[in-house]
UniProtKB/TrEMBL annotation:
Its cofactor is Zn(2+). Belongs to the metallo-dependent hydrolases superfamily. DHOase family. Class II DHOase subfamily. It catalyses: (S)-dihydroorotate + H2O = N-carbamoyl-L-aspartate + H(+). Homodimer. Pathway: Pyrimidine metabolism; UMP biosynthesis via de novo pathway; (S)-dihydroorotate from bicarbonate: step 3/3. Coiled coil: none annotated. It comes from Chelatococcus composti. One of its GO terms (biological process) is 'de novo' pyrimidine nucleobase biosynthetic process. CDD domains: DHOase (cd01294). This is Dihydroorotase. Catalyzes the reversible cyclization of carbamoyl aspartate to dihydroorotate.
Length: 355
């Protein structure tokens, strides 16, 4: 049995860090495991301009544990009014790496999102020309579409037409959750890729209703049937360079989730690499783990791979239930209260102790 895994240092291509006290509490977990992360812009108000991204980046850098070399990669939140010139200059000056498209009302803080894709055609054309990647939350939000079909309908009615209309645009289908999504990305033209979360590889939709309603399994896109989970596991562990790591770690205070109308999002950062490693081990694909975690993402984004390595050891670790916030609040940790079998042994940031 494999006892240690050493891979080139990985990146997380989809992270919600929030702001203020929450940022300070959750950032060390991501910084301890990952060299870089794409930072989602769905703050309140959202990060819609390069100047706002600069300011958010400063707050992230100020919240980092001393000695950390973690690099946040900033993104803009696309609205109907996004300025193509700001996007292109922000990208060309290295201050942003991508723009995120949320269909309006698709998820947490997406009420500012795009109302009609036609409205953003000029900015997409500018992004295509300048090579700016588009990150997509791939769900339609029309009320007549069943929540479990939202991704598949989005792919057919929005994503595929967009990918064809802008043939040079670099596109990431974020947190793919369906076999239709996997098939689409596998067969799409060049420059189309997808991130896969740890949680969508680990549970299916039954977990949300196991013995009662379980808000700590509720995220968007919502977990689907078992056949979809199996398709995701196959894609992630296949070595196909179009699939790579993006945790979608999305912390919310317990009170915001354990409520009559609970927020979507799971705080997976503390167990992210442990969960992925377990999946690759179970699939007999540890030899493909480095490609998924550390090579495929940089390749899609045209960035260098990281220097240095990270080592995971087989060492059972009890996962704390919660991470505390000031004022007595807490964030439940995915798999909190359980034991994971892989532990980061040599993360070189000052926050190593937390991973
Ligand atoms: C995310 C959040 O809370 O910001 N929630 C989630 O369920 N994934 C938003 C998102 O990425 O959809
Ligand atoms: Zn997300």
């Amino acid at each position: 049995m494999t006892e240690t895994i050493t891979i080139r240092r990985p990146d997380d291509w989809h992270v919600h860090l929030r702001d203020g006290a929450m940022l300070k509490a959750v950032l060390p977990f991501t910084a301890a495991q990952f060299s870089r992360a794409i930072i989602m812009p769905n703050l309140v108000p959202p990060v819609t301009t390069t100047a706002m991204a600069d300011a958010y980046r400063e707050r992230i850098m100020a919240a980092l544990p001393a000695g950390s070399r973690f690099q946040p990669l900033m993104t803009l939140y696309m609205t109907d009014d996004t300025d193509p010139a700001d996007v292109v200059s922000g990208y060309e000056s290295g201050r942003i790496v991508a723009v995120k498209l949320y269909p309006q009302h698709a998820t947490t803080n997406s009420h500012f999102g795009v109302t009609d894709i036609e409205k953003i055609h000029p900015v997409l054309a500018a992004m295509e020309k300048a090579g700016v990647p588009l990150l997509i939350h791939g769900e339609v939000t029309r009320p007549e579409v069943d929540i479990f079909d939202r991704e598949a309908v989005f792919i057919e009615t929005v994503l595929d037409p967009l990918v064809r209309r802008f043939p040079g645009l670099k596109v990431t289908l974020e947190h793919v959750t369906t076999k239709e999504g996997v098939e689409y990305v596998t067969g799409a033209r060049e420059r189309v890729a997808a991130t896969i979360t740890p949680h969508h590889l680990i549970f299916n939709r039954n977990a949300i209703f196991q013995g009662g309603i379980r808000p700590h399994y509720y995220c968007l896109p919502i977990a689907k049937r078992e056949e979809h989970r199996l398709a995701l596991r196959k894609a992630a562990t296949s070595g196909n360079p179009r699939f790579f790591l993006g945790t979608d770690t999305a912390p919310h205070a317990r009170a915001a989730k354990e409520a009559a109308c609970g927020c979507a999002g799971l705080f997976v950062a503390p167990v992210a690499l442990a969960c992925y490693a377990q999946v690759f081990e179970e699939e007999g694909a540890l030899d493909k783990f480095e490609a998924f975690a550390s090579l495929n993402g940089p390749r899609h984004y045209g960035l260098p791979v990281n220097e240095g390595t990270i080592t995971l050891v087989r060492r059972p670790r009890a996962v704390a239930e919660d991470v505390s916030l000031p004022a007595g609040e807490a964030v439940h940790v995915f798999r909190g209260g359980e034991t994971v079998s892989w532990t980061v042994a040599d993360a070189d940031s000052a926050a190593a102790a937390v991973a």
